[in-house]
Amino acid sequence: MKNSPKLLNLMNIKEKLTKYLDLIKSLEHPMHQDDILKFMYLLKRDRLSSGPYPNVSLFEAVNRIFSDLVIWLGVKQLLNDRMVDNTRLPFTEYKVRFSVRAGHDLEADSGTVHLIGEAFHVAPSLYKKKLADTVKKLQDKNADYKLIIFNSDALENHDRDPEKSNPSMLYLPVYVPKTLNEISNLI
Description:
By secondary structure, the protein is α/β, with parallel strands linked by helices. It has one domain (6-186). It has helices at 13-25, 36-45, 58-80, 127-139, 176-186; strands at 6-9, 83-84, 87-88, 93-96, 106-110, 113-120, 145-151, 170-174. The radius of gyration is 17 Å and the shape is globular.
């Protein structure tokens, strides 16, 4: 998937998300082998030829796809309800970048107000480290709002203080399986 920014708003998010999900459905992947080690090797090293991330292994594609889904679903949630905890965001569209190595996953502008954001999908065992790294990445940046979107199941066995969110650092957990089921019913 190209790293060019996409502008998402209420008018286009359903169509663009549908196209992305169609890319995922087209993914050709290695089927389970009798030899489990060979199968695991294929998952980690065999390059795909289809889907949103061709030329990477299925393992890498899955990591990228689920991070992308956190962005898609988080932005969809923000467009439908501009509230994050007790903060109302003034944005009606978001510029997003998928599979970003440098820069931010999302940005938004509304006149003189600016938002930057990062998104991730991580296992519960890696949540605290990933969150700390993401906060550090955003901390010294100049923006009115800083937003971290992440998969809510990463909070498993972790407590998150709801008072922690404020305009200088907002946290938006996204429940990926439930939201995907809702989207699948609409498409």
